[in-house]
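Aim 2 progress update. The chain analyzed this quarter is reproduced below.
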Amino acid sequence: MKHSDERILTTHVGSIVRPQALLRFSAAEKHAPSGDYETALKDHVEEVVRMQAKAGLDIVNDGEFGKSSWANYVLDRLTGFEPRPESKIPARWLGSDRVRFAEFMASEFPRAIHGSPADACVGPITYKDRWSIRRDIENLKTALGSAGAVQTSQGGPILDGN
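Predicted structure tokens:
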């Protein structure tokens, strides 16, 4: 793992807003192991890694671009869950913003107002989509190389330099 006695190392953890070019693909296109989506995803991962490196981050990520959403991607990649569309879960994590910005939420994020369909754990949880995991790792490794990044001995991405 990269260490510094000189300064605090910086990182970004979590999702970065996905480019419109990725959002326009259908779920079926995203689950196909080849095609336009895969090319666009690889290109956008390279771009987001370059942007993080240019901003001076020491530890970069893929923006979570290969995941369907910041939280729900587990439903695509794991077994044991069942949709419960009749049950709606309010977006409580948005706090009072659901009320304060109701007009914006209604037009841009209607699930914040009406709730999102729930899912329930109904069986053992196992991986069902290892292909997407391998794809995300390969895309990040490729992007690290083109951005001038290296990997730590523990396998995590870091940038060369300080």
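The longest strand covers residues 81-89. The radius of gyration is 18 Å. These observations will guide the mutagenesis experiments scheduled for the next reporting period.
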